[in-house]
Give the backbone structure.
Amino acid sequence: MCTEALARALGACGARLQPLVDALKAEVLGHRVLHSDETPVAMLKPGNGKTHRAYLWAYAPGAFDATRAVVYDFCESRAGEHARAFLGDWRGSLICDDYAGYKASFSQGVTEAGCLAHARRKFFDLHAAGKSQIAELALAQFARVYEIERQVQPLAAPERLQVRQQHSRPILDALHQWMVLQRQQVAGNSATAKALDYSLKRWAALTRFVDDPQLPPDNNWIENQIRPVALGRSNWLFAGSLRAGQRAAAVMSLIQSARMNGHDPYACLKDVLTRLPTHKASRIEELLPHRWQPIDI
C-alpha cells in the first residue's frame, strides 16, 4: 500500500495516534543536529472550492544519528514562523537550504549548517548551460570533498573529524581562496558571479561540517524523506482543510519513520493501534517506530 493510500486509510485514527506523534516530535527535538526541508502542497480553501499553496515541513535527526525518524508538519504557508513554532526552545545545528524563513532562528540560538549539495548544484547548472571552465574546476573540487565523505561515512565521529580536518579542510580552504579570486574577475550580474556568490556568502555555514563530525555536508537526508510526499502529490491532489492536512502529516510521520527502520508500516501501525488503549502513557516511547517490536505470538 502506498504512503498516500495508507495515510488516508488511517486518517480516522489521527486522534488516537496523536500522542504517539507528539512523542516522536519530542524524540526528534531531543537531538542536537536536525535536518529540515519543506515542499508545497495544495490545500482547499474553505467556502470557495479553490486551493491555495500550503506547505509540508519535514524534520529529522542528523544523518549520522542512530535514531531513524521524521516528523512532518503541515502548515498554511512557508512563513518562517512555522519553523520557529515547531522548533520552540530547541537549540542545536539545523541543516537546511538557504531559504529565508530559517534566518530568524539563527539569531535565536540555532546554528546554521548549510547544504553543500545546493552550492555544488549552482556550478553544475552553470556548466550544463555553457561548459563553463570555472564551473568545471569548482565541480572537480566538490567531487574531491564528496569522495572523502564516502570514505568517512562508516567511521566513528573522532576518526571522521580527523580525516575531515586533515584532508577536507585544505581542499575547502583552497577552493574558497580560488573562488574569491575568480569573483574579482567576473561581471557582477553574470551567471558565474551568482554561482560564486551563493557559496561565498554562505561559506561558514557550508563548511561547518568540517569541524563537527555529527554534521553531514548536505541536506540530502531530509530531501530523501520528503521526496515520497512530493512524488505522491499527483495521487492525492490536495488537502481538504488545514486540520485534514495536519492529520495526514501526523500519520505520514509514523509511516515514513516505520519505513526508515525497515518495518512494514501497515503491520507496525496496526499493532500499535491495537496496543495503544492498554499501553501506559508513561511508556509510549516504546511504541515509536524506531523502538517498536512486534509481540511474538
